[in-house]
Automatic annotation (TrEMBL):
Pfam families: Lipase_3 (PF01764). It comes from Umezawaea endophytica. The lineage of its organism: Bacteria, Bacillati, Actinomycetota, Actinomycetes, Pseudonocardiales. Residues 75-207 form the Fungal lipase-type domain. InterPro entries: AB_hydrolase_fold, Fungal_lipase-type, Sec_MonoDiacylglyc_Lipase. This is Lipase family protein. GO terms for biological process: lipid metabolic process. Gene3D superfamilies: alpha/beta hydrolase (3.40.50.1820).
């Protein structure tokens, strides 16, 4: 994995920053030794690991993440989960959603439980490592994207001194109700970017309107180009084009588009 060129003070959407954050999100799937070695190669001299188990209503699960610090930047990357396990989480409708940060809106119960398992460790690491007013960033793929967005929400609304400078998520499912989505968009506008790859099936669950996405979409079309928006009519046509790219397995396109490697490859092609 090549060393990314991170802009520690980037503001607004930046193609190179998106690619670098995708690499950081992908690294969350690696083992501890590789995470530390790779982060060191990127200029992050300190790493803290976060790992905790919890028991949602359906099965024992765990949350994993890492926080890496350089003299000017701190990045927390959350690991995703297997699509089958995520499907089980999202299919649970018997448990009511959790109150959002500072009692703002509501959050999907499974995501709230997953974040709660490691959030004290994440907040403690950021507080410890932020010894030179470093910028704070969150990233993650799939479930990890949901946790990255929610971690940024909890810090901003409950500990504003640690409010995120930037949040990049990839293949993120819907996480919260309209009240929290609106408050989040108002608070972190221009700092959060939700990247969606064409037919990525995970970005379409859990169902609306009970659960919503935050704004700031960046849509990767079927040709691999990143767009700033996804108008309904053209998006439907583009998704149909993506599904016919493999005539032998059109239904698999939604899962292929969800793989983290697909995001990294597409974003690399969009580098300036």
């Amino acid at each position: 994995m090549s060393a990314p060129t991170l802009n520690h003070q980037a503001s607004g959407y930046d193609a190179r920053q998106a690619y670098c954050m995708a690499q950081a999100a992908e690294l969350a799937y690696a083992d501890r030794g590789r995470i530390e070695a790779t982060a060191a190669g990127w200029g992050f001299d300190r790493v803290r690991h976060h790992h905790s188990t919890f028991t949602p209503p359906f099965a024992l699960s765990d949350t994993q993440a890492y926080t890496a610090a350089s003299p000017t930047m701190i990045v927390t990357a959350f690991r995703g989960t297997e699509p089958v396990q995520l499907r089980d989480w999202l299919s649970d409708t018997t448990t009511p959603p959790w109150p959002g940060p500072a009692n703002t809106g509501l959050v999907h119960y499974g995501f709230a439980e997953a974040l709660r398992a490691v959030f004290p460790s994440v907040r403690s690491a950021i507080t410890e490592l932020r010894d030179a007013e470093q910028t704070v960033w969150f990233t993650g793929h799939s479930l990890g994207g949901a946790l990255a967005m929610l971690a940024a929400a909890w810090l901003h609304f409950e500990d504003p001194s640690l409010s995120a400078h930037g949040v990049y998520t990839f293949g993120q499912p819907r996480t919260c109700d309209r009240a929290l989505a609106v408050a989040y968009d108002r608070a972190l506008s221009g700092r959060t970017f939700r990247v969606v790859n064409n037919n990525d099936i995970v970005t379409q669950v859990p169902p609306g309107p009970a659960f919503r996405h935050v704004a700031a979409l960046r849509y990767i079309d079927s040709s691999g180009r990143v767009r700033e928006s996804a108008p309904m009519a053209s998006t439907l046509l583009d998704r149909a084009k993506g599904m016919t790219a493999d005539p032998f397995a059109p239904a698999a396109d939604g899962m292929r588009d969800h793989f983290m490697k697909a995001y990294v490859t597409a974003l690399e092609k969009n580098l300036p």
